[in-house]
Queue: 2 jobs
Job 1
Amino acid sequence: MAFTLAPDATLLKPIRVGDTDARNRIFMAPLTRSRAQADGTPSDLAAEYYSQRAGAGLIITEATAVSEVANGAYMNTPGNYTDRHQEKWAEIAGAVHDAGGRIFMQLWHVGRMGHPEVNGGIEPVAPSAIAADMTTHTPSGKKALVVPRALRTDEIPGIIADFRAAARRAVDAGLDGVEIHGANGYLLHQFSSDVTNQRTDAYGGSPENRARLTAEVVEAVVDEIGAGRVGLRISPGNSAGDMREENTVAVYEALLNRIAPLGLAYLHVLIDPSAREFGVLRAVWSGTLVLNTGRETGTDFCQLESYAEWGAASAVAVGRTFLANPDLIDRLLLGAELNEPDVATFYAPGAEGYIDYPTLAELEEPRTA
Ligand SMILES: Cc1cc2nc3c(=O)[nH]c(=O)nc-3n(C[C@H](O)[C@H](O)[C@H](O)COP(=O)(O)O)c2cc1C
């Protein structure tokens, strides 16, 4: 597979996202890689992995837990709630900046997707005690997800405080900003859905109530680090994480109407742009919009360029193709063949499939012993 972008393509033009100058509009989508150390400190290889991909207009990191209970959907995923975590993230941010890149940290609470066997015995929490009908890999093999404990109303301020504290640590570590993970069936998405959220307090029921936790997290993080350093990811109608939503548009309209005046760096939407929901939400959101189409058949850069040209998207996020092509931008300019992602090493430990995807230069001049 190969695509050619002209040097004057919209996707290659710089863009300002909040307080950050991105050198092009092709961002690296958040990608969990399961290489972190047992205590949630990122891998020693992560600085190299991310700096190899500094050609992206903006790197959005893998989902990073805001607390211990927020972790545990998959093995070896990082956090940003201890000094040791923060020190490693500072090393990663420094390496990306030295390579000319920009980096936002995706902040994550897994909610009911957590498994006690992955997370030191910690019981997962969620809006309601409803299990996802799914399995996850644990140290003792594949296990069904468990029924989570429903959060009490008086525990919600603590969740918001965890996002706030992790955002502060991200900025103190030198990252350019944070992306709040409101997508893909994790805690904030579980609150948005009328299926996984059956609460009767101020965080359940009406669309405004279901949007409340995400909005309050966004507001707290904005208060902590400034709107120009905050993005939000949503995936309206996406079924990842055994997610169902019955009146999708209403909750996201309520959310976007509430947060629009804050002036966030961007809204990141994982959606097929031909979906009805996208048209409605694009009309509500006049700010910077990062689009991830997530097509099963892989990224079509010609199609993405046309979304950017029309203004349907301000920038695009690319996941698997960036994972496999550290020098993606150079390849697109040259129309060079793209490396294929190796699914078997997406979540495998070690360097293979992580920092060893070759650049074009390495393909042309193979490393000699
Ligand atoms: C290996 C892998 C890990 C992922 N991890 C995350 C994640 O940590 N956070 C997130 O929001 N999405 C995650 N996603 C979803 C991607 O960000 C993206 O939406 C998806 O891969 C579709 O985009 P693509 O076709 O460009 O790969 C992951 C996807 C893959 C393949």
Job 2
Amino acid sequence: MLRVEEVSKHYAGSEKGQITKAVDKVSLTLHPNEIFALIGESGSGKSTLAELIVGLQQPTSGLITWANNLQAPKKDRPTSRIQLVFQNPDRSMNPYWRVKDIITEPLRLSRYPKKKAYVHAEELLAKVKLSADFLERYPAECSGGQKQRIAVARALSMSPLLLVADEITSALDPTIEDEMLQLLLSLKRSEGMSILYITHRLETISGFADQVAVMKDGVIQELGDTRTVLTEPKSEYTKALLNAAAYK
Ligand SMILES: Nc1ncnc2c1ncn2[C@@H]1O[C@H](COP(=O)(O)OP(=O)(O)OP(=O)(O)O)[C@@H](O)[C@H]1O
Ligand SMILES: [Mg+2]
């Protein structure tokens, strides 16, 4: 569905001649209807890679290509191939807007009439398992987990083929994190979309992600189907991450 070939993003450093290789020669393929987990410690280049895939940044070198035989979802409203959900809902939501305006923002930005967009709002909330009571609320009246569901509902308004979720569970406690993973898994099936799920917690993706890539210093250390990587890790770095997780 989406192919990333030898993609790099290098930044010039503060000192002369110094460069940061935020992403370095990364290749991976995202298939339709799959969850791809991207794992790595802070500063490993995960968000940079996500921004390159979404098109918020341009690569220094390499290619990112969508399959050209992709069928856009058939809808009577605007659609987009890709949507991004960020780690911190407070930074991506206007605190003075009601939930119904937040989740219909992408539709309205696509010039879809407000009244018609509101008709979809309740259905979008239902998709993320929130009741219609939330429509009139402000973000401050929702918990962290609920706000992340609202952010996912907003992304779903455009019926994306790919949802990029950048550490959307990092600030949540383990029970709420698990509920979010279950929700994403059921959305993958019901919406027929793929998910690029970014996290620093390798221990959360078993039974959730189809493929996993482990990243360090901008380079993919290991990539494969999740079960194989978790049970027969090849790279020393993956082994160290698994060991560290086992002692938590
Ligand atoms: N605009 C920029 N200019 C210079 N360096 C940058 C820029 N953006 C990111 N970097 C550097 O690129 C590297 C990768 O950053 P990135 O944000 O992609 O990491 P990350 O894996 O998402 O980390 P985290 O888990 O903390 O979110 C870091 O060393 C960072 O300092
Ligand atoms: Mg990041």
